[in-house]
Amino acid sequence: MASPNGGDDFETSLLSFEKLDRASPDLWPEQLPGVAEFAASCKNPITNSPPKWMAELESEDIEMLKELGSLTTANLMEKVKGLQNLAYQLGLEESREMTRGKFLNILERPKK
């Protein structure tokens, strides 16, 4: 028969006083890759240097970003539709030129 205090001894024996190091990447892997780096970059004080992705932009690119950023949602959608139409027109033109090249035998491989 178990003593009335036997249950307490059993529960006490199950307790673990081991300290887990939460800094260990093996024990606590990062759930979403890159989130920790992003969070660390947000904590840094704002500096005067531009972000890495802006380093290769020219002044024309920055002006276009500012212009697109100032558009309303409707204007931005109109701009996107215009770009889609332009891409479609370029595709049609390329198709015509490829057909023209085929008829003129420009694309034919030289015979050896």
UniProtKB/TrEMBL annotation:
InterPro entries according to UniProt: DREAM_LIN52
GO biological process: regulation of DNA-templated transcription
A GO term from the CC aspect: DRM complex
Transmembrane region(s): none
UniProt superkingdom: Eukaryota
Family: Belongs to the lin-52 family.
Protein name as catalogued: Protein lin-52 homolog
Organism phylogeny: Eukaryota, Metazoa, Chordata, Craniata, Vertebrata
